[in-house]
Amino acid sequence: MGRQMSGKRGQDCHIQVPLGTLVYDADSGELIGDLTRPRQTLLVAKGGRRGLGNIHFKSSTNRTPRQSTPGTPGDQRRLRLELKLLADVGLLGLPNAGKSSLIRQISAARPRVADYPFTTLHPNLGVVRVDPMRSFVVADIPGVIEGAAEGAGLGIHFLKHLSRTRLLLHLVDIAPADGHDPIDDIRQIEGEISRWSAELATKPRWLILNKIDLLPPEAIEANCRILTERLNWEGKVFPVSALSGQGMQEMIHAIMNFLEVQDAQQGQIQECQ
Q: pLDDT tens-digit profile of 36-51?
């Protein structure tokens, strides 16, 4: 046709997704990309080329061309989106171990807290500010129970959110109301994590012995020592009370220092590369 016409140029279609989204091809299972940076874009399907009118074929020797090209179809893809939260620290423990109370104590997050298990039904994120210029993000997931790796309970559905964390805090009720052994709780969680993901099982993990406000002062140190000796635990241990805040400042400063050391080491590795 006349008037120097060409095929219409289509507009890009942008879909906003949360930070931490993984994009898969639903048919092949291929991982197309991982959106981990603010304002990051990912091309998942390319549009077709527009058709060209005869004006594009005009030349000094072909003043009135009679040719054109049709447009081409764009890509079609079925996508599967999976969200993995971005957090520096992940909370791990049985239901009612005090994870939600702890994140409420150290951050502005306000998850539901009650005196019965399974009050947490979805992940919660909290920003912990050590001082005006230093902070880190904590992720709280529903409690993991025995048999979780085979699908029991809720926590197994959210363990993937801990895969991006750099440090796990394993919360344990040091004074169970029913009198059972806290060692059994620790071993139970360790077993479920190992069955679910070998990578997650090898992450740095600290033992957080919660609810020390229920013990007399003279019993706290003795109970902690006996428990760690029985476990042959060589990692860091923090006796705390998520209810009263006892021991929290020491814990969050240790976490911040740990993360800063990791950041420094990562920076040195990148400089060497």
A: 888 899 999 988 887 7
